[in-house]
Amino acid sequence: MYTQAMDTMGREEGSPKAVRSAEEAQLEARFDARIDDGGFIEAKDWMPAHYRKTLVRQISQHAHSEIVGMLPEGNWITRAPTLKRKAILMAKVQDEGGHGLYLYAAAETLGTSRDQLLDALHTGKAKYSSIFNYPTLTWADIGVIGWLVDGAAIMNQVPICRCSYAPYARAMVRICREESFHQRQGYDSLLVMMQNGTDAQKAMVQDAVNRWWWPSIMMFGPPDDQSPNSAQSMRWGIKRISNDDLRQKFIDATVPQAEVLGVTLPDPDLQWNAERGHHDHGPIDWAEFWRVVGGDGPCNRERLGARVKAWDDGAWVREAALAHARKQTQPLKASA
Ligand code: BYC
């Protein structure tokens, strides 16, 4: 992704209005037929330019989210309350780094280099998930991130295991398995606090739920009727389930879990609607969502600053690795 697209007035290659050669029209018809049959597209297959661009946008946003997502949790590794919780959190944060790497590799198969992708992140042109622009104020936030944020991530990501672009779909299979562990560890840590904790610990969990609930349900993206990319991405089998439908599935799955935990979800309008067979929920503050996506959330500057600093601090490692690689490929000089 994620350089913001320039307005090419519909003349962009691969856009519906672009002029195509007969050969290209034939390739596109074959591509569409494969998508309609539920088939997969591999990196070397022909694909419309706009399909490629959409994938680079989504996969790189996803990769950036994984590595920026390491920051709010990494912040608590040194303060985890027990050795067990510290080991779990370290493993989880490492997993997120690994997810970022699989996803950058998947994006690279589409012909965009890792340097280009990272440059877009570091210069603020690239998006990453809104959720990681909120602060982690207490230890309970770490449990709630596992339960709600990873829970929302799984709900969104399981359908991507069937994404029409095969390298992305394959990466998602492994990522989803790991995310499932992430959600369970978060829920388990909250359950321990809610069942055996002090009143202060229980209040800390409730406070964290109050702060993370609404940002978690915003993670699924804008409502379907305000989602500019959804129709085309659904047509191409990149997205299999819409933003609103995933959000609804997440809410329906989470309400009974909150009851078991003994926490209240901070939405007075949340109630079961027998007619719809779903929970109704209150209005979502989309102005807040767009503010955060636009760079003005509570931690946007801090998060981006941390990523840029890590990149700059790592320059010597990249240089050393390149020097080592060069040495390995040079023929050995005959000794005098
Ligand atoms: N945050 O047309 P729409 C994780 C943007 S990692 C920021 O519906 P689309 C984890 C969207 O990009 C979780 N921006 O877009 C990691 C678009 O802007 P552009 C990350 C958002 O792409 C570590 C505009 O709004 N998961 O869970 O069809 C630790 C209009 O939206 C957001 C993924 O990335 C947002 N929340 O649908 C723990 C999953 N939502 O590009 C956990 C893969 C929307 O037109 N991505 N925008 O300028 C997707 O499934 C889709 O890209 C989305 C958005 C559902 C997120």
From TrEMBL:
One of its GO terms (cellular component) is cytosol. GO terms for biological process: phenylacetate catabolic process. The keyword Signal does not apply. Keywords: Oxidoreductase. It comes from the Bacteria. Gene3D superfamilies: 1.20.1260.10. Coiled coil: none annotated. It holds the Pfam family PaaA_PaaC. GO terms for molecular function: phenylacetyl-CoA 1,2-epoxidase activity. InterPro entries: Aromatic_CoA_ox/epox, Ferritin-like, Ferritin-like_SF, PaaA, PaaA_PaaC. It is an enzyme of class 1 (oxidoreductase). PANTHER family: 1,2-PHENYLACETYL-COA EPOXIDASE, SUBUNIT A, PHENYLACETIC ACID DEGRADATION PROTEIN PAA. This is Ring-1,2-phenylacetyl-CoA epoxidase subunit PaaA. It comes from Sphaerotilus montanus.
